[in-house]
Design brief:
By secondary structure, the protein is an alpha+beta fold. It folds into two domains: 19-172 and 232-322, Bira Bifunctional Protein, Domain 2 (BirA Bifunctional Protein, domain 2, 2-Layer Sandwich); 333-426, 3-Layer(aba) Sandwich (Rossmann fold), CATH 3.40.50. It is 39% helix and 20% strand. The strands form three sheets. An eight-stranded mixed beta sheet has the order 1-5-6-11-10-9-7-8.
Length: 427
């Protein structure tokens, strides 16, 4: 008696993207790549696996990501402590240092790919999710901060997203944050009665993160806490104003959110988020900011940098809410055939059609014409090329147009040697 085999399932939070849905991903990715190219950004690819220390140093030891969410393990072959990347920036900066990328000029780069965080799956966010990561390396001024935000406004317009709003803040420089930190800790010590255990734990290690709480009982306390913005010096304020001036020039509406600190410790000066109310409680579509100190933290020469990341799942969710996607056809030409000789001829003709740039699907198997035509229609093809015994003998293919606008056209007979040129001009 054969033993039943248990059906295996995918991991929680690791989502399969099936062909129909994946076609929408590809459409969005192409829009994104064209948009980034229009601003001079080039693609860069970094490994999924990095040393754990990279993220501990780069992101911050007391962040949620490092403390709770990273997929980390010890390599059984050599004992190395490794982590599947929870974000792109630290790995990109590591590569920039390792390959001395900034030796002659700044770089505008982007990456698109999966990242991993062990958090509670929710709408638009999984444990394996995907990011569009954009970085401007080696550029110090408020002009590039503003350019990144203006770029994003253009992307929302391209996608028809009208209800994504911008919040910005400035985190100043380290000495300004230190002065604010002292005042903030003194304030928090007076309000421990309303703080939850997580806030008490972070009160001394990372007090800024206490202000980012989602606990309703702590909102009033957080709102009345000393604001970092009030501790900014002249240079930091001038940088912030430079960003705002350029956003005003571009007609971009924004709101100052003095509680915004972002979830990563490497930020300074400008931070920003684009948010929406259409994705539930976690409404951030895109977030980023300046991180001038990260190069030095990771062992490189000091260099300015600024960037952002977009969650692909969330962006796709928003986009498809506004525009019901049209199915992406599997092919343009579907080859229908009957008999062994016709099937072999169909394969030869299909290669000729692909030579001129057409997307062609040759029916596999030996089913009847009726079922093949049903499959051709379901494929989304605009035309069926039909081959049977008579067509093979006459060396002429029958051509039948399948889409509604062309269905009234009579079926044609086209010589084999003219078929590619004929379809190339009409498909």
């Amino acid at each position: 008696m054969s033993k039943s085999v248990q059906k295996l399932r995918g991991l929680t939070g690791m989502k399969d993207i099936l062909p129909g849905e994946s076609a929408q991903w590809e459409k969005l990715e192409q829009i994104v790549r064209d948009w980034l190219a229009s601003y001079g950004y080039r693609n860069m690819r970094t490994p999924v696996l990095e040393y754990t220390q990279l993220f501990a140093r780069g992101i911050g030891e007391v962040t949620d990501i490092v403390e709770k969410e990273m997929y980390s393990f010890t390599d059984s072959l050599n004992g190395d402590k490794l982590t599947m990347r929870p974000e792109f920036t630290a790995g990109i900066v590591r590569a920039c240092i390792e390959h001395n990328m900034l030796y002659d000029r700044p770089h505008r780069i982007y990456s698109i790919g999966p990242v991993f965080r062990h958090e509670r799956p929710q709408r638009g966010r999984y444990r394996q999710f995907h990011q569009i990561d954009v970085e401007a390396l080696g550029l110090p001024g408020p002009d590039i901060d503003a350019e990144l935000i203006i770029m994003l406004a253009r992307l929302w317009k391209k996608l028809g997203l009208e209800d994504v709003r911008l919040e910005i803040n400035s985190l100043g420089q380290s000495h300004e944050r230190l002065a604010h930190r002292e005042a903030l800790i003194a304030y928090l010590e007076q309000h421990t009665d309303v703080m939850d255990d997580e806030a008490k734990r972070r009160m001394y290690s990372n007090p800024l993160r206490v202000l980012d709480t989602k606990n309703p009982a702590m909102q009033d306390m957080a709102n009345k806490a000393p604001k970092l913005f009030d501790y900014l010096g002249e240079e930091s304020l001038a940088h912030y104003q430079g960003v705002c001036d350029r956003l005003d020039d571009a007609g971009i509406v924004y709101t100052l959110n003095p509680r915004m600190v972002r979830g990563l410790d490497y930020y300074n000066l400008t931070v920003f988020e684009w948010v929406t109310d259409r994705l539930g409680a976690q409404g951030t579509v895109c977030g980023g900011g300046r991180y001038d100190g990260l190069m030095e933290i990771l062992g490189g020469k000091p260099a300015p940098a600024v960037g952002f990341a977009i969650g692909m799942e969330r962006l796709l969710d928003l986009w498809l809410q506004d525009a019901e996607p049209e199915p992406v056809p599997e092919c343009q030409v579907y080859m229908v055939h009957q008999g062994d000789a016709a099937q072999r001829q169909a394969m030869r003709l299909a290669e000729q059609l692909r030579d001129v740039g057409l997307r062609v699907l040759v029916h596999a198997g030996s089913t009847g014409f009726k079922s093949q035509f049903r499959r051709a229609d379901a494929s989304g093809a605009v035309v069926a090329v039909i081959l049977g015994e008579n067509e093979v003998k006459a060396r002429q293919a029958s051509v039948k147009w399948l889409r509604m606008a062309d269905q009234d056209q009579p079926q044609e007979s086209i010589d084999f040697d003219q078929l590619a040129a004929h379809l190339q001009t009409k498909v």
